[in-house]
Amino acid sequence: MKGWRDPVALLAIPAIAYLLLLYALPLLWLLMKSFIGPGGLTLKPYIDFFADPFNWRVVWNTLVVALWVTLVCLIVGYPAAFALARAGVALQIAMLVAIILPLSVGVVVKAFAWQIVLRRDGVVSQFLVAVGVWDEPQRLLFTQAGLVLGAANIFLPFMILPIYSVVKLIDPRLTEAGATLGATPLYRFLRIVLPLTLPGVVSGIAFVFSMAVSMYVIPSLLIGDRFQTLSTLTGRSFLFMRNEQLGSTTAVVLLVLAVSVVVGSSWLARRLGARA
Amino acid sequence: MSFLDVSGAEKSFGSAMVLGGVDLGVAQGEFVSLLGPSGCGKTTLLRIVAGLLAVDRGTVTLDGEDITARPPHKRDVGVVFQNYALFPHLTVAENVAFGLKAKRRGAAETREAVKRFLDLVHLADFADRSVRALSGGQQQRVAVARALAVRPKLLLLDEPFSALDRKLRETMQIELRRLLRELGTTSVFVTHDQDEALTMSDRIAVMNRGAIEQLDRPEAIYRRPATAFALGFVGLSSRLSGRVIGTEGGLATVETAFGRLVAPGSFVAGAPVLLAVRPERIKVDPPGGYAFTARLRDAVFQGSKVQLHFETTEPDQLMVETTDLPDGVPAPGSEMKLGWAVADTLLYPAP
């Protein structure tokens, strides 16, 4: 109970008031719309939503793209975080700038840039033809692969940075100690490095997944209306269809999905970490 | 060939030569200390033996096998690190079991070894604790148990006591020495603490600037330091600079600020030398004629002994340790007669 009497806690009042009044309450009010029908409280919007196979497709699209983006970020970002943490001072600063600076470029600008890159005559296509992977130029724009590629690029810093912050704290002597105890490099990685970096990996996954599952601008520009996700559907419901109830329903479904994947993955990681 | 044999080990970092062709032989079951100031290359040598650092030139053989190019996990060389490097995500028992599991020993064998080594370091009651909850001394014991549990051919210890307070350190030194002797583990111990090296070692390698200056038993290192550096680094000494007048029958006569003194050694006449005596070897009011007078600057009472510092000109240093002062601690400024046996005199080329 001491915490409540501590006057320092009062310093949080402006932040709490701001978030509560201007963010949480309107959000709650919006989300409640999905539970309120003409005759009071109802679950009908949800029953209708899940009765439509198109909506199942939307949920599936959302999850698949978000998982792919998270996976690509993890595969690219995990080793990058090590390179960053173990680099010399000058190189480390250069790498950090290279990772953080692009965050200041707007998502819209980056998505447009990717449109150019992913075109039939874009660099990716030209490269794959040049090295002989593809026989003729192909369009990656407006495909799922293109969307994943572009989104992974934009969210990559949010995977690298939390892993980097954990790797930086690992004493390099730990793997040396493992080696002198007879552990092979693979064993050292699995039993020392991986368990110790797991907290960083979990926060990286939580960051990237929650952003990828709810991204709106990037799919709009890189894949278009033919491919609907929960957030583009939410946007359409509010902006074009003026269907606030459908919009708030999809928003709630999205929220529940994102929260459960994030919570679930951290729970799983803790289990794995405890076992290792 | 010795059990561990390092020959011609050279290592540079950039343009800085850290090891300049070091040879070191350690017999099976022996405890050898690498003693030297920081930056002398002792830790580099240890890391080379462990395989954590590659030599530029030279070879390392262990138990008859050339292990120069072998990665650390295939060497059978255990290390106790200075900061212990315990795995923070594992319990005490899991830390000790780590090497056994990595080497795929059976579950029963692992359990037994963990229990045995935790018993040996008196940590059986702490098996399931997190290593983060342990004190420094306990962590150090976990590190020792972890390194020994896989029964390495050779154990390397990198200043394992440096983080402990003095009293604990002394207890742990004796404990560790006893444990290693019981197990018959060949050990190389890195330290900058001469007392630690003198207490624990079968032999000491005094290192300076990337080279071993003397490798010998502690007593020999103390009584007969091979170089002026070894003299200065291990133990206290009175040191007088002088010039050789002549050598006759293996005895050199040296002109010093306190007159002509005789020391065993052969130098050409006129050579600048450093003449030294261990302070407890100097007698106050010695019987016989070999003596000179000096003025007392300071007397430090240390309980069982008294340390007397005499007035000299820089860089000379004249210090006497005595337990025998029948008239009590003398007052500064008193003139005292000092002398020592010729055999106790050490003579080096002037550094």
Quaternary organization: heterodimer
> Which CATH first-tier class of the largest domain in chain B would you pick?
Alpha Beta
Number of helices of chain B: 8
Average pLDDT confidence of chain B is 93
Question: What structural class results from the helix and strand content of chain A?
Answer: mainly alpha
Low-confidence stretches of chain B: none
Overall tally of structural domains of chain B: 2
Name of the CATH superfamily of the largest domain in chain B = P-loop containing nucleotide triphosphate hydrolases
Q: What is the straight-line distance between the termini of chain B?
A: 34 Å
The coarse overall form of chain B would be: elongated
The tally of strands of chain B reads 20
Text of the CATH class of the largest domain in chain A: Mainly Alpha
Query: What does the radius of gyration of chain A come to?
Result: 23 Å
Number of domains of chain A: 2
Order of helices and strands of chain B: EEEHEEEHHHEHEHEEHHEEEEEEEEEE
Proportion of residues in β-strands of chain B:
25-35%
Main sheet: strands, sense, barrel of chain A: 2 strands, antiparallel
Q: In angstroms, what separates the terminal alpha carbons of chain A?
A: 37 Å
Q: What's the short story on this structure?
A:
The complex is a heterodimer of chains A (276) and B (351). By secondary structure, chain A is mainly alpha-helical. Chain A has helices spanning 2-5, 13-32, 44-51, 53-86, 89-100, 107-117, 123-130, 144-167, 172-180, 185-213, 217-222, 230-239, 244-275; strands at 36-37, 40-41.
Structure description:
- The complex is a heterodimer of chains A (276) and B (351).
- Chain A is built from 13 helices and two strands; from the N terminus they run H-H-E-E-H-H-H-H-H-H-H-H-H-H-H.
- The two termini of chain A are 37 Å apart.
- The mean pLDDT of chain A is 91.
- Chain A is mainly alpha-helical and 276 residues long.
- Chain A has two domains: 42 residues, no CATH class; 223 residues, MetI-like fold, CATH 1.10.3720.
- In chain A, helix 10 runs antiparallel to helix 13.
- The radius of gyration of chain B is 24 Å and the shape is elongated.
- In chain B, the strands form four sheets. In chain B, strands 6-7-8-3-9-10 form a six-stranded mixed β-sheet, sandwiched between helices.
- Chain B has two domains: 223 residues, P-loop containing nucleotide triphosphate hydrolases (Rossmann fold, 3-Layer(aba) Sandwich); 114 residues, Nucleic acid-binding proteins (OB fold (Dihydrolipoamide Acetyltransferase, E2P)), CATH 2.40.50.140.
- The two termini of chain B are 34 Å apart.
- Chain B is α+β, with helices and mostly antiparallel strands and 351 residues long.
- Chain B is 24% helix and 34% strand.
- Chains A and B meet through helix 9 and helix 10 of A and strand 6 and helix 2 of B.
